[in-house]
Amino acid sequence: MHFKNYPFFNGHQGAIYTLHQMENTTSFLSGGSDGWLVKWSLDNPALGINLATIPGQILSICYIPGINICVLGDLNGVIYWLDLNNPKIIPKAFAHHKKGVFSILHIEGQLYTGGGDGFFTKWSIDHQTPLESIRISLKAIRSVVYNKEEDVFALGCSDGAIYFLDRTSFIITSSWSACHLPSVFSLTFHPDNERLISAGRDALLKVWHRKNGELIHVIPAHRFTINHLILNSDGNLLFTASRDKSIRVWDALHFKLLLSINGTKNEGHQNSVNRLLWFDSQQSLISASDDRQIGHWQII
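Now predict its structure.
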């Protein structure tokens, strides 16, 4: 396995913290410390469109198709509802979470946010107002993923634990303590619904049996914090992004390292890699970094 690198997407004036793919297109959104929401296309990396600027640093993005609304979460816990039909109009904003908003998910007509204050909130999209909140942890919620088959959320927190929340009842059904020390940074459910994969500030990659919490694999995957992990649609490739400036590709069956894209003068990022996106039809991996650049890699 090897990679082909394409021209980077340049234009942000600060670190880039988040990416969001626009459904069924080759377009995606980015946001970061400059407060810019930028739209990009894989087909034209030189043409980034600055859709809007908010006064805070953007940590999370969720685009809601059909109504053309984009919801942003910032470093100070503010939620912005941005109408992309009129993106220059000041968006509706709620200072809801007391600390940064690390996760925003759109699930079956409902919006959910996870904050640095440890609260998880369900929102009305029609009224753009919070409906219900639950305190998951005394520390930050760093990652939230959803399992449709079980109708359950998994939440990784800065207390090192992973919590499971039933979406219908909005009740915590179970939790696993001391999963990563000191903090869980990223989670994903494997498509086989038998495994949960986690990554943390301890630079470890861990694979868990979903039903009983048995630890199947522990991999020292990077030198520093693993900021994000994702799977491709088939679930056979796992991608990890780290503060050590590298991106790594793993066999998601045996968790063997297949490829490493390292931060050097000739390739890769020069600072922490914060976020990843995978475009299945193009076999393309997109990466966002503190170096103000967005990378584009075709995995071959």
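Residues 143 and 156 are 5 Å apart (CA to CA).
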